């Protein structure tokens, strides 16, 4: 697996969005969105269904006109320089857009030619990308015979043909089986390692953790949180202090001591005998010091202390009030048919 530096130092912005607004009737699909994506990074845009993710990607791809707001992508103005912009971006839309009648290879070759690649180069890129996405064996079959997962991979390959400097991936792995999901992730990492910038929308927290350095959470067309993965976790969910007593039989007594002490702003503590741990949700360093001090003053011995950040799922739930999609739920439905898988 290719490793990427998720936080390269202070590059320029490849994407800058300011005050983006797009209304559909009463619906505020985008309601004043600001977004910065640093060059050479993967930026995750998270949000529940209907948050405005696809609308944002469509505006940034010049597919729809916003009502107001500005956006610069790879140095081009999305509103006034759409032609130049289209030459340097790649898009994998949320819904696959391959030509059903053409074979996988023909789909890629055609797009390569449309992007002005020479015949030789278009052929080389098509072969290379089919190989990377495990589609070589199915290369000559019409796309209409492909499973959902295969179409998705073909779509991703198509968006990468022209080696775009900025790539938009709108929920790229929804409906993919775990193996294919990993292939897509590896390919994204590889593109970023080669210098591309990726704007990724996703409802999968694992995907965001795997790929994105910075995140922007949107809901009802508005940015409701942004920052690095760990910064968001720390900001939103607080931490859990995990204490391992020297004497495991004292776990319950320790929990009672903390709960009875009524320390300022502390919600309580919970003994987890199976792990031999006492979990105490804390919101500040002062609470951490107070809990440890209290246990020491009461004569409890401590072997180990750690703090644990909330998962990104917990963060998402805390700020949007909705559970993120469960990656396991829609896996397999698009499993690759045996006869054409490699
Ligand atoms: N062409 C359209 N006409 C009318 N309403 C639209 C249109 N496109 C999007 N919307 C509305 O705008 C809002 C944002 O939609 P959008 O597709 O951008 O959300 P999303 O974050 O991509 O959701 P999902 O996770 O389901 O893909 C929704 O309320 C949607 O119903
Ligand atoms: Mg969408």
From TrEMBL:
<dbReference type="InterPro" id="IPR027417">
    <property type="entry name" value="P-loop_NTPase"/>
</dbReference>
<dbReference type="GO" id="GO:0046677">
    <property type="term" value="P:response to antibiotic"/>
</dbReference>
<dbReference type="GO" id="GO:1900753">
    <property type="term" value="P:doxorubicin transport"/>
</dbReference>
<dbReference type="InterPro" id="IPR017871">
    <property type="entry name" value="ABC_transporter-like_CS"/>
</dbReference>
<dbReference type="GO" id="GO:0005886">
    <property type="term" value="C:plasma membrane"/>
</dbReference>
<dbReference type="InterPro" id="IPR050763">
    <property type="entry name" value="ABC_transporter_ATP-binding"/>
</dbReference>
<dbReference type="InterPro" id="IPR005894">
    <property type="entry name" value="DrrA"/>
</dbReference>
<keyword id="KW-0547">Nucleotide-binding</keyword>
<dbReference type="GO" id="GO:0016887">
    <property type="term" value="F:ATP hydrolysis activity"/>
</dbReference>
<feature type="domain" description="ABC transporter">
    <location>
        <begin position="15"/>
        <end position="245"/>
    </location>
</feature>
<keyword id="KW-0046">Antibiotic resistance</keyword>
<dbReference type="GO" id="GO:0043215">
    <property type="term" value="P:daunorubicin transport"/>
</dbReference>
<dbReference type="InterPro" id="IPR003593">
    <property type="entry name" value="AAA+_ATPase"/>
</dbReference>
<dbReference type="Pfam" id="PF00005">
    <property type="entry name" value="ABC_tran"/>
</dbReference>
<keyword id="KW-0813">Transport</keyword>
<comment type="similarity">
    <text>Belongs to the ABC transporter superfamily. Drug exporter-1 (DrugE1) (TC 3.A.1.105) family.</text>
</comment>
<keyword id="KW-1278">Translocase</keyword>
<dbReference type="GO" id="GO:0005524">
    <property type="term" value="F:ATP binding"/>
</dbReference>
<dbReference type="GO" id="GO:0008559">
    <property type="term" value="F:ABC-type xenobiotic transporter activity"/>
</dbReference>
<keyword id="KW-0472">Membrane</keyword>
<keyword id="KW-1003">Cell membrane</keyword>
<protein>
    <recommendedName>
        <fullName>ABC-type xenobiotic transporter</fullName>
        <ecNumber>7.6.2.2</ecNumber>
    </recommendedName>
</protein>
<keyword id="KW-0067">ATP-binding</keyword>
<dbReference type="InterPro" id="IPR003439">
    <property type="entry name" value="ABC_transporter-like_ATP-bd"/>
</dbReference>
């Amino acid at each position: 697996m290719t490793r990427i530096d998720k936080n390269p130092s202070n590059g320029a912005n490849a994407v800058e969005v300011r005050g983006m607004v797009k209304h559909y009737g009463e619906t505020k699909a985008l309601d004043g969105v600001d977004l910065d994506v640093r060059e050479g990074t993967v930026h995750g845009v998270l949000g529940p269904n209907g948050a405005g993710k696809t609308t944002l990607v469509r505006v940034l791809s010049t597919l729809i006109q916003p009502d107001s707001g500005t956006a610069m992508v790879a140095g081009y103005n999305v509103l006034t320089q759409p032609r130049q912009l289209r030459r340097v971006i790649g898009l994998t839309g949320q819904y696959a857009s391959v030509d059903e009648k053409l074979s996988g290879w023909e789909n890629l070759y055609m797009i390569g030619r449309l992007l002005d690649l020479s015949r030789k180069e278009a052929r080389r890129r098509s072969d290379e990308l089919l190989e990377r996405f495990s589609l070589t064996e199915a290369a000559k079959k019409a796309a209409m015979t492909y499973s959902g997962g295969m179409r998705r991979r073909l779509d991703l390959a198509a968006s990468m043909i022209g080696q775009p400097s900025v790539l938009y991936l709108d929920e790229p792995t929804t409906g993919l089986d775990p193996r294919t999901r990993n292939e897509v992730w590896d390919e994204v990492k590889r593109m970023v390692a080669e210098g591309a910038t990726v704007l990724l929308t996703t409802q999968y927290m694992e995907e965001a953790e795997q790929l994105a350095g910075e995140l922007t959470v949107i809901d009802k067309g508005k940015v409701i949180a942004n920052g690095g993965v760990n910064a968001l976790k720390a900001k939103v969910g607080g931490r859990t202090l995990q204490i391992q007593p020297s004497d495991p039989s004292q776990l319950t007594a320790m929990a009672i001591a903390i709960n009875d002490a009524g320390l300022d702003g502390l919600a309580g503590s919970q003994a987890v005998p199976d792990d031999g741990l006492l979990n105490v949700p804390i919101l500040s360093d002062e609470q951490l010091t107070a809990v440890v001090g209290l246990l020491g003053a009461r004569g409890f011995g401590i072997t180990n202390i750690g703090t644990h950040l909330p998962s990104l799922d917990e963060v998402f739930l805390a700020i949007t009030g909705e559970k993120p999609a469960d990656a396991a739920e829609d896996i397999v439905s698009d499993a690759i048919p045996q006869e054409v898988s490699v």
